[in-house]
Design goal:
211 residues; alpha+beta; six-stranded mixed sheet; 6 strands; 20% strand
Length: 211
């Protein structure tokens, strides 16, 4: 049940991001959405989903950061389980950036392992502004394990997608002996004129469940 609600929230989240960008990010392409904004927005979407299915919930930030920083990781608690949420902005999409994501998961495990229940879910929400670099072009394949069908549409927007030597799922298995139970990508931004997807702005989602 909890996993279904998380997936439902992911599928509705792109509309939230489009509205968020219209309000706060006229120049989102400069840096992507801040981890604080994207984390808080998903936590609110998750809370809204709980309410729509008559489940009370509460949002609290995870204390994994230095004092003074805006929170970017959250927990959304309910009587049917807790959704743990890590947001991660992929600046360069290179190995260092991908390794930092694994370190974030490891740090979460270390700090909150005592509180994780069998029914709980961890969701990772990441974003990236695709550039001409090799690492950037490989990111979607690294995350999904395959290239999307719409290669032509990406090429028309000046994007060259490439296959990656490594895979997100394999890295998760190596580091944590776990496989994602749901992965997805999306392009929540649309051009104001023709409503065409802005494929250079990429969001990545992964849901993990420790049994």
């Amino acid at each position: 049940m909890l996993l279904d609600l998380v997936i439902k929230s992911v599928n509705q989240f792109q509309d939230d991001c489009l509205k968020l960008c219209e309000r706060h990010y006229p120049t989102v392409h400069n840096q992507g959405i801040s981890e604080h904004h994207i984390g808080k927005a998903f936590a609110r979407r998750m809370e809204h989903t709980f309410v729509s299915f008559n489940h009370a919930s509460s949002i609290s930030p995870l204390e994994m950061l230095s004092s003074g920083e805006n929170p970017r990781h959250f927990r959304i608690s309910s009587e049917i389980g807790t959704v743990w949420m890590i947001s991660h902005h992929m600046v360069s999409a290179g190995k260092t950036c991908r390794k930092k994501l694994m370190l974030d998961i490891h740090k979460w495990q270390q700090e909150y392992g005592f509180a994780i229940q069998p029914n709980d879910v961890l969701i990772i929400v990441s974003d990236h502004w695709i550039t001409r670099s090799k690492n950037s072009g490989e990111l979607l394949h690294w995350w999904m394990g395959e290239l999307p069908d719409e290669i032509t549409e990406y090429s028309q927007q000046g994007i060259t997608l490439r296959e990656s030597d490594s895979q997100f799922a394999a890295d998760l298995n190596t580091n944590f002996s776990i496989s994602p139970c749901f992965i997805k990508f999306g392009h929540p931004l649309k051009r104001s004129g023709n409503q065409q997807l802005v494929r250079k702005y990429l969001q990545l989602y992964a849901v993990l469940q420790w049994q």
